[in-house]
């Protein structure tokens, strides 16, 4: 079902798999995103109804956490650290160059669905800043050529 439009039955099944947990809202979001690649807007009323919450409450929680997507991500996700250590070591210029090169803003996906660029707030490589992640590969002392090589290798 990944990166497809899930049915209401698909979403309901995913919701039910998490209902045994205490505080199941975040695990429900994770289950849906893991299965579908994103949390579709159509899932919010189903989640709200099952948890006896308002759609606004469910939406508020989802929008608070940057890891949850409303639309499918590109085939390759590039994350660039925006925390202070990385910014102080050139992360802002790196971000600007990558976004400009791809013609994107934060969180956007290229028109062909190939690449999504996301901001993250620490990848744990502060001593080797700036840091980025291409797919599942961490990149220390990131620069545009390193990111380009990693993106080519991941394609």
TrEMBL record:
Keywords, sorted A to Z: 2Fe-2S, Iron, Iron-sulfur, Metal-binding
Cofactor binding notes: Binds 1 [2Fe-2S] cluster.
Molecular function terms, GO-annotated: 2 iron, 2 sulfur cluster binding; metal ion binding; oxidoreductase activity
Cofactor: [2Fe-2S] cluster
Residues the record lists as binding [2Fe-2S] cluster: 81, 86, 122, 126
Top-level taxon: Bacteria
Family: Belongs to the complex I 24 kDa subunit family.
NCBIfam families per record: PRK05988.1
Record's protein name: Formate dehydrogenase subunit gamma
Organism: Salipiger aestuarii
């Amino acid at each position: 079902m990944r990166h497809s439009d899930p049915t209401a039955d698909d979403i309901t099944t995913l919701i039910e798999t998490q209902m045994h947990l205490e505080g199941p809202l975040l695990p429900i979001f994770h289950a849906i995103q893991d299965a579908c690649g994103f949390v579709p807007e159509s899932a919010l009323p189903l989640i709200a109804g099952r948890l006896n919450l308002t759609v606004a409450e469910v939406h508020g929680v989802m929008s608070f956490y940057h890891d949850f997507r409303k639309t499918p991500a590109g085939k390759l996700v590039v994350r660039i650290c925006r925390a202070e250590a990385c910014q102080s070591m050139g992360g802002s210029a790196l971000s600007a160059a990558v976004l400009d090169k791809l013609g994107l803003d934060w969180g956007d996906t290229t028109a062909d669905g190939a690449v999504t660029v996301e901001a993250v707030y620490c990848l744990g490589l502060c001593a080797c800043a700036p840091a980025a992640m291409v797919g599942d590969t961490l990149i220390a002392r990131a620069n545009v050529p390193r990111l380009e090589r990693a993106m080519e290798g991941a394609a």
